[in-house]
Amino acid sequence: MGTPINGKYDVVVIGAGFSGAVIAERFASQCNKKVLVLEQRDHVGGNCFDYKNQFGVVVHKYGPHLFHTNKKEVWDYLSLFTKWHRYEHEVLASIDGQLVPLPFNLNTLYLLYPEEKAKTIERLLVQHYGYGGKVAILDLKETKEPLLKELATLVYEKFFVNYTTKQWGCSPKQISPAVTARVPVVISHDNRYFHDSYQAIPVNGYTKVFERILSHPNISVKLGFDGIGLFEFDESTSTIKISDNEFEGRLIFTGMLDQLFGYRFGELPYRSLKFDFETLAQKQFQPNTTVNYPNEHQFTRITEFKHILPVESDHTTIVREYPQDYDRLDATKNVPYYPVFNEGNQTKHQAYAALANKFKKLTYIGRLADYKYFNMDDAIANALTTFRKISNVF
Ligand SMILES: Cc1cc2nc3c(=O)[nH]c(=O)nc-3n(C[C@H](O)[C@H](O)[C@H](O)COP(=O)(O)OP(=O)(O)OC[C@H]3O[C@@H](n4cnc5c(N)ncnc54)[C@H](O)[C@@H]3O)c2cc1C
Questions:
Q1: In what order do the strands lie in the sheet with 301-304?
Q2: Quick check: helix, strand or coil at residue 379?
Q3: Region 89-117: what's the mean pLDDT?
Q4: Residues 258 and 307 both lie in one domain
Q5: Whose Cα sits closest to atom 50 in ligand 1?
Q6: CB neighbours (10 Å) of residue 232?
């Protein structure tokens, strides 16, 4: 890459998403380390990347990203780099021709059932789970109460099963309960999708936050650069090498471990997405940010970006999301979005993790390297914690 790394940089970070950017910033600002960030894409921000289009609409290139957290540390950290636009996400689902709140809550109940029946079901839900409580859809299915069982079947069939099948390309039974259990019935009239104490969008979008995080004078960023080819992993000595010399610094890897180690234990499967963006010559397309389509169409949902960061424009931009299998050799399917959870894949990931752990100077973090679904706040919290752990042993 032209620039010598040994002697010039103390830390090399592969990946400029939240995991990589935050840990790079901490080493630069808290330890005065020289940090090189290598990013294969032509932009920073990872999957949180956004940009303003010609109509002033801030578009999320890799799908809608709504920031929410209960972690004060993460909120305080990000607030060093941005001011916030207050935003609480609400989602609607298109069910039998009407738009109803999602997750299924008491407002949804009254829209889909006759009033008297809805009142009885509400009473039963409150009695069993308490007002303000939540019950996972798969648990509700197990209830002995006939009316709640009926409700469970309705929610399962109209909201859950077809959406999940589209999303994962297989039946819900084939998916780990860790994923399916996330789908709740909410026993309240609160239409908000998230209930975290902090919910907001960076006032100038996410990319500007990344640019500020990475603007520390100790950080150099190289875009359009796949970092993997630069390093060799010598298992006999557990050392990392660059051009046959031992790498003296610390390598922080936020990409895929199977790729890092040449897929030697096989590939870790992912679901990918195709995003179909459309800009329309109208002020508004739909009543709120996201409408899910569990039972119609091939796509799972439509997001209208103007609702996230409002802008005065006669145009609006929407995106339809089509789930698809990941294929690293096909340019239309080669972005890994969601790890496919099952025991076999976890075991495979553990084999890669065990191999990575042999290299003392290698740290792997992030949604790809950990082969886990992380929200943004998880990725940031994890980077802050990992920094505290490894900065002591430097
Ligand atoms: C469709 C979708 C919607 C989401 N919506 C939300 C939401 O609303 N709220 C929320 O909190 N979270 C959301 N998330 C999760 C959020 O995207 C992640 O938490 C976040 O992206 C994790 O950051 P990361 O740095 O670990 O990974 P990433 O953002 O994926 O960053 C990893 C970076 O590493 C780079 N890289 C990988 N390998 C290499 C290599 N060999 N060389 C150089 N660079 C490399 C990649 O190009 C990428 O830029 C969503 C995720 C998806 C898929």
A1: 98-102, 91-95, 290-292, 301-304, 316-325, 270-280, 338-339
A2: helix
A3: 97
A4: no
A5: 65
A6: 12
Which is the closest atom of ligand 1 to the Cα of 370?
Answer: 26
User: pLDDT tens, 10-36?
Assistant: 999 999 999 999 999 999 999 999 999
Clarify whether residues 53 and 25 are in a common domain.
Answer: no
CATH code at 255?
A: 3.40.50.720
Q: Are residues 320 and 282 in the same domain?
A: yes
291 shares a domain with 151:
no
Continuous segment of H or E residues that includes residue 346: helix 343-357
Ligand 1 centre from 129 Cα, in Å?
A: 35
Does 209 fall in a domain? no
Tell me the pLDDT tens digit for each residue of 109-138: 999 999 999 999 999 999 999 999 999 887
Residue nearest to atom 6 of ligand 1 (CA): 65
Which domain, by its residues, includes 113? 102-186
pLDDT beyond 80 at 171? no
Number of domains observed in the structure of the chain: 3
Considering the domain architecture, whether residues 125 and 173 belong to the same structural domain is answered as yes
Cis link prior to 103 (omega < 30° from 0)? yes
Same domain, 296 and 322: yes
* Residue nearest to ligand 1 atom 1, measured at CA: 63
Query: Cα separations (Å) of 355 from 234, 346, 362?
Result: 11, 14, 11
Distances, alpha carbon 340 to alpha carbons 167, 199, 246, in Å: 11, 28, 35
Residue nearest to atom 5 of ligand 1 (CA): 65
The dihedral built from the CA positions of residue 112, 117, 121 and 126, taken in this order, carries a sign that is: positive
**226 C-alpha to ligand 1 centroid (Å):** 16
Its pTM surpasses 0.90: yes
375 CA distance to ligand 1 middle (Å): 9
Tell how far the Cα of 391 is from the centroid of ligand 1, in angstroms.
23
Residue 373 inside a domain? The answer is yes
Both 345 and 243 in one domain: the answer is: yes
The average pLDDT across 339-360 equals 94
Q: Which residues form the pocket of ligand 1, taking CB atoms under 6 Å from any ligand atom?
A: 14-20, 38-41, 46-48, 62-67, 226-228, 254-255, 337, 366-368, 374-377, 379
pLDDT digits (tens, 9 = 90+) for 186-200: 999 999 999 999 999
348 and 248 within one domain: yes
Residue 5 lies in a domain: no
In a domain, 206, yes or no: no
**Pocket test residue of 1, 43, 47 for ligand 1, highest count of atoms within 8 A of CB:** 47
Residue pLDDT, tens place only, 175-230: 666 566 567 899 999 999 999 999 999 999 999 999 999 999 999 999 999 999 99
